[in-house]
Amino acid sequence: MNRSLKLAILGAGNLGTAIASGLLRSGVYDPARIILTRRRVEKIARFKEDGFVVQADNKDAVRRSRIILIAVEPQKINQLLEEIKEEIDAEKHTIISVVTGVKIAQIRRILNSEVVIVRAMPNTAIAIGESMTCLATTRKKDQALAVANKIFDTVGITQIIEEENMTAATALAACGIAFFLRAVRAASQGGIEIGFDSDKAIKIAAQTAKGAASLLLKNGRHPEFEIDRVTTPRGITISGLNQMEHEGFSSAMIRGIVTSWTKASKVYPDNEDG
């Protein structure tokens, strides 16, 4: 177990606590060296049982930590940054922001500091070590990117992207969890209609979805290659696929992702570039 990490997760809501749970589950980092903060501290009190430091004081958490992970909602980040700005030391700290829609330049402008900032967009599968996390920074040679990579590699897969694509990462990776869960639910409902009970249908659909995703990740091939291996002329699979396309399956998924991307680009009230 790595005891060197001193990480403060400011704003330990659903995503912040999912990150904490993922880091705990990985076994790589000592929870005693991870501080979780929240105004209503009673909502995260249970994390004390796992060894995390739990408190409401953000300034103290910053003073005691080297890596500051900001996980508040977009409408609350300005207030938080104003609160902690006097405690930020550019020589000591690395900031990782998982806040949707807030650019590095906007964070830097409020902090009025040259502190290194990395943006990260994980998803809630981080809690079980299966996150898809996209990372971006404006200073590619900074060691901070390697630090963020090391943290998030313990709880899933990471991908370094350009900052301009972080909103797209929000729609595809973070919102995408819900999209694919809805697809699994739809598949399970189809399974119920053709004879399975609910529990069996969900288990079969979920494992099938996991298998399909694993084929792509392990083989590195295009989805259509794997689809072609399942479909035969006048076959059962192609008839089902064609019916789904007639009903707009692919176009509905595409429209959903684009809609979420559009919404994510407007979620932070301060849209200046800094």
Describe this structure in words.
This protein has 274 residues and is α/β, with parallel strands linked by helices. The protein has two domains: 7-162, Rossmann fold, CATH 3.40.50; 176-264, ProC C-terminal domain-like (ProC C-terminal domain-like fold). Helices cover 47% and strands 14% of the residues. It is built from eleven helices and eight strands. Strands 3-2-1-4-5-6-7-8 form an eight-stranded mixed beta sheet, sandwiched between helices. It is elongated and about 70 Å long. The model has no long low-confidence stretch (mean pLDDT 93).
Outline of the structure:
This protein is of the alpha/beta class and 274 residues long. The protein is built from eleven helices and eight strands.
